[in-house]
Amino acid sequence: MRRKKRKTVKMKFPNKSLLLATFAACIGGSFQYGYNVSIINAPTKHVQEFINQTWTVRYQTGIAEDALTLLWSIIVSIFTLGGLVGVSVGGTLSIKLGRKGTLLTNNILAITAALMMGLSYGTGSFELIIIGRLIIGVNAGVGLIVQPLYLTEIAPTAIRGLLGMGTYVFLTGGILTGQVMGLKELLGREEYWPILLSTTAIPAIMQLLTLPWFPESPCFLLIDRGDDEGCKKAIKQLHGAANCEKEMEEIENERNNLVGISAKKPWELFADRDMRWQLITIMLLNAAEQLNGINAIYFYTDYVFRQAGIPNDKISYATVGTGACECLTVLTRGLLIERLGRKVLIIGGYTLMSICCILFTLTMTLQETSSVFPYLSMACIFAFILSFGLGPGAVTNILIVDLFTQKSRPAAYMIAGSINWTSLFLISMSFPFIVIHLQQYCFLVSMGICTMVAIYFFFFIPETKNKTFLEIQNEFKSRNKKKGSSTDDSGMTLLASSG
Hints:
Blueprint lengths: L15 H12 L2 H9 L5 H16 L5 H32 L2 H25 L3 H28 L5 H5 L1 H16 L11 H6 L2 H10 L7 H7 L3 H12 L4 H14 L8 H6 L4 H16 L2 H6 L1 H7 L4 H28 L2 H24 L7 H18 L1 H11 L6 H30 L5 H17 L8 H13 L7 H10 L1
């Protein structure tokens, strides 16, 4: 019996309203996160001097070096603890306030944090920096859960991957912007560091001025609120009147499939055997996204390049180069994600990252033999970042949306976000010790993690490109139920018709 092949969905360029809504959502979400990851690197010495001066005024003695290091570590890493708090409440807020409503409310935290960090110098209180970093971490945690939900729920199925990629596009843009703002030619001078830290209010204000002009997520309006007219109006504004009926039908099919099912809590997902492989996948992906070493490079850029032998006067510009590398991937990522698919990009990205780790280890080992090797080490770091940007960085958040339906998606994001932020905290605290003990072999840990993820995806995870949420769920249900039994014909038919 011949199997019917599903027609390939042609990717259409999104209309202007959809693109502007994407900008409005991302500028106060993933852009804010990326900006605050990178911006803390530039004023390191200036803030440490401020802490020492403040300590001397208070206690008539200079602060001990170990105590200063500890305070600085707290300022850097408390951002991740705030993020963990943010992901713990973000899913619940997205259900109660809506995706758009949560994003708008979240900006209050960003503005509050900016005021605290900006006023820290004038009040002589370094504690305000710590509190501000904690609050902006909460803001980032909420934004990184709710913004991807909003983007993928306002996107047509054919370009869901392309639009969902906006999360990572703006994240890399935020990282690069923070690095550029920290150059001494701009706000990187000693007298400007309070202004530099307080600029985190700018993305929040931009979102407050732009996002109200765009509608709430059509999926949220129809499935969670039962607002048929509101959903139809939102689709018309975002997709155009021509696509309204088709998009409404897809959302209604998902709603009918979820009749009588309430929004799941995180612990309920763990107890659901039908969600076993989906949960394993997002947990592995989000842990690997941090433990692969990409954010360790951003937190400790100066340290990594110094260890690689790059001259001190060139390190700040090499740092900007790391952000520029990720931004370069934006030019090709949109085409690759809908043509090659999620699975190929994950496997290919992590495989290339493993190779970069090996080459980086070799160049670090040989750096004393020639003046060329430090620059080869830098090239390996750039290649590592490019591989991450084209693969895991582009796909991880999109897969979370692909693998879960409307009722389980917020809980899935809470689980994924908690693991992501916990892993980020662990790597930000442990990376210097890994470097001390393993020295030039430090990135072999990353190589092992990258290789493991590539192997897992190759053997266990199907492609989700151009499939509706229900098709993906049915495919995973088939996989979960046929463990220990032979593949049946209906399962094979489903796989063929969904491809």
